[in-house]
Amino acid sequence: MTANSDTLIFVYGTLKRGFCRAHNLHDQTFLSTAKTTAEYTMYHCGTYPGLVRNNMDGISIQGELWRVDNRALELLDEVEGVAENLYHRAPIQLIQPQITETVEAYFYQRSVNQMPVVGDNWC
Asked: What Pfam families does the record point to (predicted)?
């Protein structure tokens, strides 16, 4: 990755426009609303959601697609607690919009036992 390359990020919770962490994307490029393939489950982790892969009975998750620069990506990794193993950033599959570039999202890394399922949209 070069110093000024961009990354596509799917956000589904507090980073979405109008939510408490949206300011972390204020100078980045919003591309569109987005929807994943039916391979994920979103859990209610208190004041924020946690997304996990669920190939057996997952659903499509609604969110937003953003193009972010490397500086913003480093900030998002910090905000999402990547170094603390709270989340990790990995590729995610979208059905809307149809896109050929790799898209990444933040996946929850802690136990989801006893956490309620949110559904398809954090609102």
From this structure: GGACT
Distance, in Å, from the CA atom of 38 to the CA atom of 54, rounded to the nearest integer, reads: 8
Predicted TM-score (pTM) above 0.85: yes
Q: DSSP state, 45?
A: -
- Choice among 80, 84, 101, 104 that is catalytic: 80
Q: Is 80 a catalytic residue?
A: yes
> Which pLDDT value is given to residue 77?
97
DSSP code string of 7-31: EEEEE-STTSTTSTTGGGGTTSEEE
**Within the chain, which residues score under 70 in pLDDT?**
1-5
Burial 1-13 (b: 16+ CB within 10 A, else e): eeeeebbbbbbbb
Q: What are phi and psi of 70, to 5 degrees?
A: -60, -35
